[in-house]
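Lecture notes, unit on binding sites. The following record was shown on slide 14. It pairs a sequence with magnesium ion.
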Amino acid sequence: MKKDLLMWDETLFRDIEVFETDYIPEQFNFRDSQVRELAINARPGIMGARPLNSICRGLPGTGKTTTIKKLFAQIEEQTKKLIPVYINCQIDNTKFAIFSQIYKRLTKRPPPASGTSFKNLFDMVCKIIKDENLVLLVCLDDANYLLYEKEINKVLYTLLRSHEANEGVRIGIITVISDMTVDLMQEVDQRVSSVFRPSEIYFPPYGTDEIKEILSERVMQGMYPGVISSAMLDLVVEQTMKSGDLRVGIDLLKRSALNAEMDARKEVKKDDICRAYLISKYIHLSQTVKTLSADEKSLLKILCGLTKDKSDMTAGSVFEETKKSMKIGYTRYYEMIKKFDSMRLLNLNYREGKGRTRVITLRYDPDRITDILQ
Ligand SMILES: Nc1ncnc2c1ncn2[C@@H]1O[C@H](COP(=O)(O)OP(=O)(O)OP(=O)(O)O)[C@@H](O)[C@H]1O
Ligand SMILES: [Mg+2]
């Protein structure tokens, strides 16, 4: 190793934190109407009543989590009465885990040991809410992680009906779903839907100009002037649009500047971006694959195998192959294919000149998908 490799103290970053995935940007535009709707729904809580329930829907990287974190920070600044509780359902996805997080938020103490019964935990949470005269606003982020074995019903039922057993307990709920094929209201039991009645807040994908403004803001904040020229920023924007996820763009900025740093250059070149893109573009893939069910993962694996074997990839012939190793009907199979299409895992196109035959093309290298699946 060259002696000065770690000693080199010239960095291109003013603040590299700005490019981390969990960074909450100060400047947060293009989501005013969503913030406003959520705030209106939360407002009754500030006056001591139950907040209205909401569902936030939108593809990955459309600012749902950030919007909620911003709103929650504002609520915490303005009132001690309404307590926002943020739950990441990728991590906490059982009724017990979620109430443990609520307990932790209310008491600032570690969650009770897992030996505690749910009833005890629930009673403790309700007692604090009543004794301190609080209202809760619970955000279940990435609530699609609760769809397995209908855990969502148990969680929502307990939260929504907690006032029945405990007069004076008021809890509002925000659920967040980034899978556009999931219709949460179809997934929940009638006894939940009759009291849930959320208003839906949609987060549309950002357009080119919006992506450009957001990324250019990050560059200004996180890098020294001149590191990314306007032409290079355009290239990053173009690649971000191609991937469909703002996160790719943010990661791309970081990686390409690190590439330039590594070569001891003061500005990013096209090649830095192209090399960085080879890694950054899979941010979407790895995050998407994580959200798939076991069946969906199996189908994706089959698609990878067929693509590598250069097999016929019409929707019909892929189904014939799938049937050999999975017990599945055509309707369910095609639903999954359409879901992959909407998640941008594959393209589904009509084959020219052959009527309505549809052809499947993976958008990612099958080897790379297989790696991630493993
Ligand atoms: N309007 C915006 N201005 C600045 N940065 C933004 C904006 N919207 C999103 N971002 C940034 O883009 C990244 C993705 O945003 P966020 O995590 O809020 O998306 P999401 O909709 O919750 O995605 P997912 O469904 O994958 O969880 C974050 O790093 C966030 O800081
Ligand atoms: Mg999110």
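Take-home: The pocket of magnesium ion (ligand 2) is lined by residues 64-65, 141 (CB under 6 Å).
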